[in-house]
């Protein structure tokens, strides 16, 4: 922003949705596509800030901050307190905390689980057929269990048997932007949230898609559907603006 944020550093990265819109338009208009790369653009700017490329001296990863103990000590100086341990009863409510969601399973190493799911997420940018499955396994990045690992390996087996599949952009007669959406109702067995899914087409080619759990619990099937429609409407509007900008810019260049 002009006059502000001059000390902020960031890298401009094109969204993959925009890239797919461009590919669809280029296919339909027989545009020539060329790719250029600026080598290490971040090295072309002088940084005044101190940048750490490794952990600073004296930094202990295993050290615990002990904030709760500090809080207890500070409260004890001002008030007379009694440590009751973990909360069990509060204002007539019994609090039972379940630390393990899957009782018949065990935790797995998230350091192995997270990178594999991350690669699947990146691969889903060109494989819409795995979006729902990848969305499901990515919900347990911090506490993965054996069931989640098995589901992830099933996705990998499916990909191994469908090597070569991907997106296909073709020329089409219809020069329109179309959007489709759907949603289940209370489909999640963990928190009963609904899952929305949508896809959009620009001039007959698939350019955006997503499967995502809704942020709140829908009280009816109609509410879940309306939330999905509201989301895809925003996406379609954004895609339409990108399409209009690219086509108008190309027309200006040809004049």
Automatic annotation (TrEMBL):
Sequence ranges assigned to domain Reverse transcriptase Ty1/copia-type in this UniProt record: 3-67
SUPFAM superfamilies found in the cross-reference section: DNA/RNA polymerases (SSF56672)
Pfam families associated with the record: RVT_2 (PF07727)
InterPro entries from the UniProt entry: DNA/RNA_pol_sf, RVT_2
The protein's name in its UniProt record: Putative mitochondrial protein
Phylogenetic lineage: Eukaryota, Viridiplantae, Streptophyta, Embryophyta, Tracheophyta
